[in-house]
Amino acid sequence: MHSQQNSPMPDDHSLERSTTAPQTQEPDARPRPRVPLIARCALTAVALFVAALSSVPFALIPGVNNALNGDNPWAALAVTAAATTIMLATYLFLTWALTRFIDGRPARAAGLVLDRRALPAILAGTLLAALITLFSAWLTNAFGLTHATTESTGANPSPWGVVVFEVLLTAYVAQGIGEEFLFRGYLLQSARMRPVPALLLSAAVFAILHLVSSGGQDGIAQRFLYLFPTFAFALLAGALAVHFRSVWAACGIHGGMHVGFNLAVSMGLEMSTPWNWTIEGAIYLFVAVIAIVLIPKITRSQVLDPYV
């Protein structure tokens, strides 16, 4: 999704101000969003829930649930692929709509472009996040904070190919790509802030929405603790996107976290305990801080517009 529409030039008064103001940063010539920032955050949150539920009508089609829960794993995979594709298409459409009609900007402004940066960015993010997630799982087990499961749960009835594709569809198509284009694509540039506050805002809004997630939490305290690794990996996703100038790096971090989670579970490691969330969140936050510190000073001193 790539629009060729250019941002409008600043008016005469803007040009006059830019010649008299201190030359600390380039004037922001972007069109002013049609609603306040808090409303843009709310619209991003609404878009997340709309996209997440967009495959529900598909599930109501007669025969779809039977195929999903039937004995044919390939039929179930086909249903999963169709449902997740509907979700991804909705995520991307809503990202484009917010960028175009709320911010008055082209799709490229939200990173909605498939270019030469995309593949190395998503691969780098995937590798980094998978390693962090696996390392944190190993660390909690090594120090006796969690316990590896050695009991056999029986052979997985699905072929390995089906299992791999299901993990990838869930990690990237259903969640990683679409959610990152909304939060690290649209909201990050729409914040009109310098990099650090923009990254913090995008990660915070994303994390707060996960209060309603079901990840093994027990009680309100654990629900808030669960937000820590979510906030931390979102912060790293945004920082890596700024470095690569590509939302695909953030997609890699998000999807790679899910890939690492599934790999750890397949190894018998516990992944849904308060210790997991604490250690994993701390490591993600540590790496995110390093990534933010490494953002060039000239970039950190300017209003963030990472994808144009």
TrEMBL record:
**Pfam families per the record?**
Rce1-like (PF02517)
Region feature (Disordered): 1-32
UniProt protein name:
CAAX amino terminal protease family protein
| InterPro entries given in the database record | Rce1/LyrA-like_dom
- Superkingdom field: Bacteria
Q: List membrane-spanning regions.
A: 37-61, 73-98, 118-140, 160-183, 195-212, 224-242, 247-269, 275-295
Q: Which GO terms describe its biological process?
A: CAAX-box protein maturation; proteolysis
Molecular function (Gene Ontology), one example: endopeptidase activity
According to its UniProt entry, this protein's organism is: Corynebacterium genitalium ATCC 33030
